[in-house]
């Protein structure tokens, strides 16, 4: 793509939001797919 590529900078954020809408009771306060600041995302199972 090159240095001048201006594309989907927020594609991961958008797709995480879409997943949360489908799986979370309250997507604004997620309990299953949580953000680990500075690292990424973590899937929380009911056993944890």
Please give a quick description of this structure:
With 48 residues, the protein is an alpha+beta fold.
Describe this structure in words.
This protein has a single domain, classed as Winged helix-like DNA-binding domain superfamily/Winged helix DNA-binding domain (Arc Repressor Mutant, subunit A). Strand 1 and strand 2 form a beta hairpin. With 48 residues, it is an alpha+beta fold. It is elongated, with a radius of gyration of 14 Å. Strands 1-2 form a two-stranded antiparallel ribbon. The N and C termini lie far apart (41 Å). It contains 1 helix and 2 strands, in the order αββ.
List the total number of helices. 1
The low-pLDDT segments are none
CATH topology: Arc Repressor Mutant, subunit A
The CATH architecture would be: Orthogonal Bundle
What composes the largest sheet? 2 strands, antiparallel
How many domain units? Answer: 1
Could you give the distance between the termini?
A: 41 Å
List keywords for this structure.
alpha+beta, two-stranded antiparallel sheet, 48 residues, Arc Repressor Mutant, subunit A
List the helices and strands and how they pair.
Elements: H1 11-23, E1 33-36, E2 40-43
Antiparallel strand pairs: 1-2
């Amino acid at each position: 793509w090159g240095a001048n590529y201006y594309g989907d900078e927020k594609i991961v954020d958008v797709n995480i939001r879409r997943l949360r809408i489908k799986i979370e009771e309250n997507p604004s306060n997620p309990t299953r797919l949580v953000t680990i600041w500075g690292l990424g995302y973590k899937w929380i199972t009911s056993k944890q």
